[in-house]
Amino acid sequence: MVEYELYYWDVPFRGVFPQLFLEETGAKYLFRDALEIYPAKSLKIHNPGMAPPYLYEVKKERYLAQMPAIMMHLAREYDYLPKRTETLDLALKSILDCLDILTEITRFYGQQMWTPKAWQEFRTDRLSKWMQIFELTGHSHGLKDDKGFLLGSTISVADIATTALFGTMIHSFPTLRADLKKHAPYVLALCERIEARPPLKSFLEQQREKYGRSYCGGEIEKSLREMME
Length: 229
Hints:
Layout: E1 4-8, H1 16-25, E2 29-33, E3 54-57, E4 62-65, H2 67-77, H3 85-105, H4 107-110, H5 116-140, H6 157-172, H7 177-183, H8 185-195, H9 198-211, H10 218-228
Parallel strand pairs: 1-2
Antiparallel strand pairs: 1-3, 3-4
């Protein structure tokens, strides 16, 4: 029986976060076109949300919007939350940091397009600092090049989110892999280990064959690609 329906576009971006989690846990779900809800029905569903992803729980007949809320909900359902209060708080912080990075790298979802000067300043300043924040978080909780996780010795929702963020980013824009290796080598190794997990490896191969190096789509992605060139 299908447990969830996940509504998003045919690009990874925010949607890959809950999708990676559902694949990791083996949850039975359907991936559905966001146009079935957005924009016409986005204010009519229970617990309305501004934009996809939307997660529909079949058994409870309810929707949930906002990527961080979806991730934290699934983490509770499947026991992917850290046990200690500090690391529990950091799990939520890490997901919110991911969302902030998505907001910044798209210049607030296309409110502005990138210029070479603005991109270079962002890449060498804020993006590098974001990478270092994740690296320092992992380092303080025992993350090594070949073992450990972002918040300790056990995988958590923070690792799935971190991989959805940086793994997708460097796949879509390979030139940024060098940035991640420079500023967050342990995080890069973590993403590679998470992506190699059996539940995720096959899914990512299929998704990337289908989408290629697509990221967020539209004029926003076009602007980003012009900067990479």
